[in-house]
Amino acid sequence: MALDIVAGLTATQEGINRLKPAAEPLVTRLFRLVPDRALSQQVCPLPLPLLLLPLLLLPLPLPLQSATVVLATVAAAVKGELAAALADPAAAPSPCLPCINPHRTLCTAPALHARFIKKALAALVNLAQDDDARGAMVKLRAVSRVLEAIREKSCPHLHLLTMLLANLTVEEAACEELLQLGSGGMEGLNMALLLKIFITSAVTLDAPVPGPSSANGTSSSGGAGGAASPSAAAAAQPGSLASAAADADPCQHLGAVITNVTRLKKGREILLEPGRGLLQALAAQLAPGSSERRRRGCSAALRNCFMSAEADGTLDQIVSDEAVLARMLEPIAGGANADKDDNVREALAEAVAVLAAEPSGRGRDALLAVDADTKLHKGYEYEDHPGVCAAMEAAGRCFIKFGDDEDAEQRQTGGGRSCLQ
């Protein structure tokens, strides 16, 4: 009952605001419901009120009257269930729930307590949309806790873990923790793991984490993916969970994580590391068969890499991979393969425009080698989104200028290539 109340409150911004004064201790208690490798096999028959009693015993800073009302409501619900359980143990609402592990988490239990794990994660996903609550989670090193659950395969709700990670990595500090900056040889291992999961799951569309995935979760007023479209070097956030429980692709939210992490140089370097083929693997997920979240995440990550290529010294890796450039042009070239999502087309068009304007001309030459000018001209005829059109026009001006310069030097060869007008 108490966990239901908390999960319900986090489903709206008003409810989150009422919980803010107690955000840090509340987040701590919610994370104690998420299993990790410290789990033991002991099970203790405790009713739900006793399971949630530590949440009430913890001293909470509640300067706001609204927060007091919220916690009082939770307390009343728990006390009522506790009294009923003590008077008649047989009538306890949850007769066999796991006990609290002294090492910080719950003991392993069968599918019975998976429902409580899911409710706790749902509340954390919704709370992580709020700046203050998200900041509290980052201070508590929530990123490492989520990554541990993914790595150790200790939690059956991978879609909620990846949604939570996407919301957390809106904070730059969370991205730094994920990248393990300053940890020497450990740097980038977490990022490599997530990239492997994201890429391999695109082939199998099967979560690489075993366990049940059908417990009922909470829903919120916002849809997943309802946040504003990510701009270059801007954070992507999947939002709250309207249909997370029904996700057929639980790893698709890692696209937003990759977008967020590639705001940092180290994240881009890992993605562009020679010989690993990660750039091609992301570009391959721009195909129409991929989910919208995957295509958005991949296109935004590619844009981040392209916009910083010259400063990062990674331009050679980009211009030498014609397969990636050709795949990026397909969704913005019009026709049957044109992407239906404005955010995807805008991100790719902006990436092409930046590469075309690269001062040395190597980016423009690489694009011309895959007929980018012709493909953009065709796509421009069908395009009606202002942001996409502006990026295409910027790229077209670069191609036209190149054609004019070429004509001045070699007038005997005729006009330059056909470009956007």
From TrEMBL:
Region (Disordered): 211-231
Residue stretches making up the Protein HGH1 N-terminal domain: 154-344
Membrane-crossing segments per the record: none
SUPFAM superfamilies assigned to the protein according to its UniProt record, in alphabetical order: ARM repeat (SSF48371)
The protein's name in its UniProt record: Protein HGH1 N-terminal domain-containing protein
Species name: Monoraphidium neglectum
